[in-house]
Design brief:
This protein has one domain (2-95): Immunoglobulins (Immunoglobulin-like), CATH 2.60.40. By secondary structure, it is an all-beta fold. Strands 3, 4, 6, 7 and 8 form a 5-stranded antiparallel β-sheet that branches. A 3-stranded antiparallel β-sheet has the order 1-2-5, with no helix packed on it. It has no helices and 8 strands.
Length: 99
């Protein structure tokens, strides 16, 4: 499971965030959901979105969200992906920093 964050270099502007799940064996990904949360350095939730699909897809599943906002330096963008009710691949985070 991976998180991708698209933003403006050297700033804390986030254009979009995406969570992706791959299965290489080739397998089906079924009944899945994804969530992205952006929290302040103090832990306050500043932005949160989630989506789910009750279907199966082969090999790769993802969700992409338009964020289009700036956040305080030190904020964290974290992702989560669940399949059939079980969390997959941990909960990766990216810390936003101004240069």
């Amino acid at each position: 499971m991976c998180i991708f964050v698209d933003g403006s270099p050297g700033t804390t502007k986030v254009f979009s965030a995406m969570v992706v799940r791959h299965k290489f064996d080739p397998g089906m990904i079924c009944h899945f959901s994804g969530k992205v949360t952006i929290t302040s350095p103090e832990g306050k939730v500043l932005w949160k979105e989630s989506k789910s699909l009750k279907k199966c897809v082969p090999g790769r599943a993802y969700f992409n969200w338009k964020v289009d906002d700036s956040f305080p330096s030190g904020s964290k963008v974290c992702a989560q992906f669940n399949e059939d009710g079980s969390q997959q691949g941990g909960k990766p985070c990216i810390t936003l920093k101004k240069k």
